[in-house]
Amino acid sequence: MKLTGPVKIVGCGLIGTSIGLRLRENGIELALDDSFSANLRLARDLLGVSEDAENPRVILIAVPPQDVLKVLKDQFAIHPDATFIEVGGIKSELIVQVEQFSELAPQFIAVHPMAGREKSGPESARADLFESRAWIISRTSKSSPEVVESARLLGRLLGSTIYEMDGQSHDEAIATISHLPQILSTALGASLLESDNESLNLAGQGLRDVSRLADSDSSLWGALLLGNREHVLPKLDEVINRLSKLRSDLDSSDLVAIQDFLIAGREGRAKIPGKHGGKNRDYSYVPIVIDDKPGGLANIFNECAAIGVNVEDLFMEHSPGQEVGLITLALSESDAISLQKHLVAKGWLAHAPRKQ
């Protein structure tokens, strides 16, 4: 089966427009709607939609969480025979609300694409935003099999990995893997307000990495955190307790306890799965010194393709004015060994694989 249109996207922000870009690539007719006229105009131009398709078969709701129910009711009144797919970040309360509408509930399904960027709006949209990301489906007790299958088809078309869970389980999981990281990144960002510019000029990549999410949309995230407070508060308490204990251990110079805090963090991070939700891989890293010339990175990937090795990740370091740069490739242990030997034989400055 294939997803068939027309599809009407209500909410032309990052998520809605990104989905629209992929649908457009696949030749699916689109209709667009957004209460913010600037977003609607930009999305129309990006998607090449001058005239909206009529009689949409699928209505995609991609609006802020506080607006979802009203938009659903309004769209159902206009298109009572359509399938309704909502793509917001919290589910349990919404599903309870939708189930009170006996005619709408069978035609409704909630999904959550675990993808995004710290920059919002259609200007940040990407057709590949959902590639290899989780696509979580949460059905109502009345969702029809056809509607559930439509949500699966959409997720597959976007290149996502499909998961299914009830609304409560979804919201509890999201508190851990999404909402808590946002809170901690924002707290770190806020802690920099009193820092002087001279000190911040010394910042390395670590500070930028950890504070990246602090640049997110405050209106959206305020609604998400408040809407999921039942599950966020226990997670927040756990972190506060860990930090309070660390403060006490630092105050008492308890080196063993401080090291235990750091070890627990490393062990917890190791549980995060690898690509496509699979088991985390124990990668080997191949450092390669290359000349600062156009095409160097592309040539490395050509060599990888020539011997059939799969690069899982890469890191680049280059200082201004330096004539060479350092490319570090992450691969499986066997691929790393093969690639390093191949590159050395070809005259590259590839160093022995190492673990991190």
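Second entry:
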Amino acid sequence: METKITMNELTFIFLLFLMLGTGLQIWLSVRQKTHVHNHQDVVPNVFAEKISLAEHQKAAAYTLTKISFGQKIDILGVIILLLWTLGGFLAMLDQVWRNLGWSELWTGVAVFVSFGVLSSLIELPANIYSTFRIEAKFGFNRTTTKLFMIDLFKSLVLTLLLGIPFIALVLWLMESAGQYWWFYVWAVWMGFSLLMMWAYPAFIAPWFNKFNPIEDGELKHKIENLLQRNGFASSGIFVMDGSKRSGHGNAYFTGLGSNKRIVFFDTLLNDLTVDQVIAVLAHEVGHFKNNHIKKRIVWISLFSLGGLALLGWLMQQNWFYTGLGVDTPSTYMALLLFMLVLPIFTFFLQPIMAWLSRRHEFEADDFAAQQSNPADLIQALVKLYKENASTLTPDPLYSAFYDSHPPAPVRIAHLANLIK
């Protein structure tokens, strides 16, 4: 029996989820602003001896500013989404390229490229304001206008060089691979993602930042010992010139297989002692030892497979197009519409993903506590909270819904219990 959904029914479902999601976002943001504002005048006891009231209030002001700006961006995003879909902008863009008489495949590529360029232009003012007003106001921005424009140009070139062949291959498979095209597209998508994970540290990241091998000395010796005893094979330990663009500090490992790299921001190494750096790195190695990266790849793989299978059914339904403001069905428009509206429905899965991520962070902290002194990790985290102006008093519900890392007091308390 064929399922039929009228345009009004699909439109109603779409608008309902959009309204509920937006309302929930606004409510959570208001809770976060209220909670941070009400707790900005007192430093939590666990941080009282390490973070001054002025530093705590700076973190609160930074958080409140970002939340307020984020609320405006969220509302603007809803308006833009409605214009693209029910407002008919996608249909008009499609018609502009169809008028040229190109093949279905290259018309689809042109629609995707032009949509991407237009979306980037729409987002550009917000990125400029965030970088040169908000980040600069709180002393974090070190990006010059010239560097910002160079990064923008490089990102555009890289996206076009990689994106055009990829989207052309995907659209070709959708048109030519038969009923189960979605499985072949999924295989190509996962293969491309893994290739990018492997290639990023050696071929892509150096196009934007300089990576210098860490100097010989006590720190390098201790890092090598930590990696060796945990069977972590890497292609090197590098220091990245993060201070070139931002005052924020971080550390991570990137890559796949033997092409993994340990990367420290230079701002991080300037702030932490040797033992504190080792504790931070032990946390990152904990993700590796607990197979967190592999688990996330599996989650993404299964989710994308299910999503593409769903798209395989939706693209055959005329109401899928008409219900979202498109009159002319096509494979490329089905994919573009699906990519646009999927986040509206998956938004409600956010707290589950955040919970899983926080669970991984606790597991990585437990591992770090076995490989290093938990007190060193506590001290390192406190310095990072202070230097990055991270709020120490997030709203519990907001944090549970969004935060990939445990709230600062909870994480510190967990590590303190490990010491006991």
